[in-house]
């Protein structure tokens, strides 16, 4: 376990999937302004599963949204790969999010009238891009969805629905997949399944995955855990265990 916050020496961009430098983000103005991100430096390495943890209100979702181009920043810079997000037009930002970023949300967000397979390929269909059939096969098999492809979301368990959502995020082979509490709506068995599959997406498919979570057990699947408090990265941990993460969280919350 190490205890350095942020990254003192920037790594080359070919090893970094997303980077924030001196990121400041506040909401509101004047006396009621809230500084959600307070000069954050962060690098998310390619081929790693990173978990972002911290007390409620510490800025986890804001950090993820800013890194993913879902929210604007006040100061600093944010890049996905070598593309700097500040200054991108709305159209280029939409294209970048669609083509280079995968999203998994707590609430699955599947289209109820479409089958599992149609949900998985939906972003590519919208973008008028043909999925790479070999990659799609690998994703479907990694997520163990082969025998569920013709089912609609209502015919799938919560864990299976979230696996479809992970498949949808991976299908376009994005630069990075962001998961906002991806196991927050799942029981512990389904949660374990989804986490194992995110892990496999990293280990076997070489994907880069970042999740925000409140769950130390979920964070223990990560290569690296970043701890936020009051809008700053205050610590990080490698080779986390549920116990070591829980201990660190208790210290942050006390
Ligand atoms: N749209 C908004 N308008 C005003 N304040 C906001 C907004 N979004 C977030 N905040 C504030 O910014 C701070 C960070 O919020 P954020 O949601 O990023 O924290 P979090 O760590 O993800 O919290 P939680 O674990 O409760 O989801 C909080 O003080 C929050 O109240």
Automatic annotation (TrEMBL):
Signal peptide annotation: none
Protein name according to UniProt: Putative ABC transport system ATP-binding protein
GO molecular function list: ATP binding; ATP hydrolysis activity; transmembrane transporter activity
Source superkingdom: Bacteria
UniProt domain ABC transporter: residue ranges: 18-254
Matches recorded under PANTHER family: ABC TRANSPORTER RELATED (PTHR24220:SF685), IMPORT ATP-BINDING PROTEIN (PTHR24220)
GO cellular component: membrane protein complex; plasma membrane
SUPFAM superfamilies the record matches: P-loop containing nucleoside triphosphate hydrolases
Keywords: ATP-binding, Nucleotide-binding, Transport
InterPro entries: AAA+_ATPase (IPR003593), ABC_transporter-like_ATP-bd (IPR003439), ABC_transporter-like_CS (IPR017871), ABC_transpr_LolD-like (IPR015854), MacB-like_ATP-bd (IPR017911), P-loop_NTPase (IPR027417)
Pfam families to which the protein is assigned, alphabetical: ABC_tran
